Amino acid sequence: MVRVPNLTRAVAVEAVRNPLAFIAERWTPMPRTVQRAALAALVMAVVIVVTGGAVRLTGSGLGCPTWPKCTDDSLTNTSEMGIHGVIEFGNRMLTYVLSAAVGWAIIAARSAKPYRRGLTRLGWAQFWVVMGNAVLGGIVVLVGLNPYTVAAHFLLSSALIAVATVMWQRTREGDSAPRPLVGKSVQQLVWALVAVTALLIAVGTVVTGAGPHAGDSREVERIPLDWENITRLHAVLAWIVVTMAFTLWFVLRAVDAPKDPLHRTRDLFLVLLGQGAIGYVQYFTDLPEVLVGLHMLGSCLVWIATLRVLLSLRERHEAVEVPGPGQSTERVATRA
Known about the structure:
The protein is mainly alpha-helical. It has ten helices and two strands. The chain has a two-stranded antiparallel ribbon. Helix 4 (82-111) runs antiparallel to helix 5. The radius of gyration is 23 Å and the shape is flat.
């Protein structure tokens, strides 16, 4: 059996003062562990968006009418609040699960060998976005689901997904200088695609703010715009994104680009087609809650797929795996 070292006062003080450094000195995660931790944070960032949509679509946005407590007298929901209180409070509790996933990603990144400052900073960036969005979520409740704050809440969640996607990609790469795989004109086209996709998502929040799903059965302020017109603008932007994705795929084929950008562009195109189909069906069927929820999930997947196309335009060498205690194998650096 392996003898466990005694916990001295000096060691305990060190662990309290800098717990991340304390863990990093005693644990070296495998690269796959770091990748899975980053992926878990990304998955939870998407889950929190979908469950937040469920809160709105079930009319539970004010199931807990105050914040940070659920009521003035109770930290948690009460039986008198019914299912709406359960749904709203449950979504609040998922924030802790998201925070745990982000914390795990930070610990894994900080403990990786060699130390990767950029990767760790991406983890901390997620942490601060989560904290900021938690406060903004409380403000959403306190102002009675004001549609502008609801839109900001969703956009900040999209920012979290963006950072989580970048971190997930970076866990599978090294820290060498990126080498472009395509020409500058193709890069500019992809950046334009990213910009229009971001605009598409932003306009989608306006559609939601002007639409019928206010988030609660009580009277809730709506954005004073014609819902039909803003929905048509959203659809036009969606077709522009689809056209740009198809054009990009055609250009990549024409210039004989590497497989990774080509495959990710194909994936984006397929996700866009699925998202567009859901969007049109929900529009012509009077916005059933299930389809609206699927459309919110699709929005996250479109955003991730778009960012993955951008990140595929360059390559870095993977980090060399540092053998842990008792290991003698070495891993030769390969292309990401």
